[in-house]
Structures are given as C-alpha cells and as structure tokens.
Amino acid sequence: MQLCVNAQIPEIMGGIEGEALFIDCESLKISRFNEIATLTIKELREKFKENPNVNHLFLHSFTSKKITDGLSILKCKSWEELEVAILRKLDSFLELHPKVKLIIIDSISYLFRYDFEGDIFERTKLLLEVSQKLKEIATSKNICVTFTNHLTHHVDVRQNIPALGASWGHCSNIRLLLERDRTSNLRFFSTTKNFPQKGKYEFTISALGFR
Questions:
Q1: pTM to 2 decimals?
Q2: Those residues with Cβ within 8 angstroms of residue 128's Cβ, 6 or more apart along the chain or in another chain
Q3: Is Nucleus found in the keyword set (predicted)?
Q4: Residue 141: inside a domain, yes or no?
C-alpha cells in the first residue's frame, strides 16, 4: 500500500508521478491505504511548503483523492482469475492506463497454495509463465513489478523458506526478506538478491507506513 502511494508522488517532490495497479489475492484494506495517503500528503506539504520550486497551488492540488483515483484494484479470488488477469488482460489494461508505473501482486503465493488443485509440475510451469510475462511487461514498459510471497517453516532443516519453492524465488531480480525478532519485537528487512548494498536493516511500521 505504501508503494502504491509513493509511486504517485510528483516528480518535483522527488517521486515518479505515476499510477499503480494492485492485484489483490487476499484482503486489501482500503481504509489503511487512505490513511497512508492522507498522512503522506500532510508530510509532503509540510516538507515543501517553503520550497520556492513548488507552487503553493500545485502543492494543495495534490490530494489524497488524487492518490486514490490513481490506484486501480483488481481482485482475484482464484488462481484461474490471476492467470487470466496477468496472461490475457494485463497488456490491454496497461494500454488504457499508460501512467501505471507500479504493479503489486499480494500475495502471489496465497492462491497457488490454497486454491491450486494441479500437481507441483503444473504449478511450476504456470508460475514460470506468469513470471516471464511480468518480466516482459517490466522491461518493455519500464514498470516496477512487486509481489509478496509467504514463508513456510521447513521442519527438516528448521528454517523458514519461500512458500512457492526455490524456482519461484529465482524468478525475481531483487528479493527482500521481512522478518520480526520475537524476543525484541524489532522488525528487519534483509537484502537477499542482486541488491546494491546487501545487509540487514531495522524498520518500523507506523500510521505513515513503512519507515
């Protein structure tokens, strides 16, 4: 949700001034999105109110409603709907919405874990088709494609592993791992693949979102 807000920040304020598509496979809370949008607007107005390069009228024309209008939501209740959305409908949608600079899929693992009835080979084949299509769109249209994946606990090796297996993990160009230390209640994200600065960083979640 935070990314969908940030993708719409005007260029003059350091953003990319785009729109966002959220493919919802679980339960998007639009009230939380509106909260982040409203508080982000407030933060930006305070930050740029004395900036001579930002027109006062322009600053106040950038509203939470404008951010909400720039978010398209596509609800997928089954893996078949997700397959159709990505492989058959996404190209035409992007032609109609050329300002889209971000696509979020949350969570791509949910439908394939709990709804998919085929065998693991069929699932892997379909996931690779989806991955290839998303990479093609990201490259040809200069769009950031972000998807979330669950972790599952592997009893044999006593560690958490990506829910859709290693093959899906290798489909992404960059991977970030979000985790929480249950003893200290601190949250961290780790850069695990192809990130310029690899490491582990603390973050917090507030009303403003991810910080």
A1: 0.85
A2: 167, 171
A3: yes
A4: yes
pLDDT in tens, 137-192: 999 999 999 988 776 655 555 566 666 666 666 777 887 877 777 777 778 777 76
Domain range spanning residue 123?
1-153
Domain membership of residue 194 (yes or no) is no
Kindly give, in sequence order, each residue whose CB lies less than 8 Å from that of residue 161, ignoring residues fewer than 6 positions away. 151, 152, 153, 154
In the chain, the amino acid numbered 171 is: C
Tell me if 3 sits within 8 A of 106, measured CB to CB: no
Q: For residue 206, what are the CA distances in angstroms to 39, 131, 171, 187?
A: 11, 32, 31, 12
Q: Is the dihedral of CA 170, 171, 176, 178 positive or negative?
A: negative
User: For the chain, first and last CA: distance in Å?
Assistant: 13
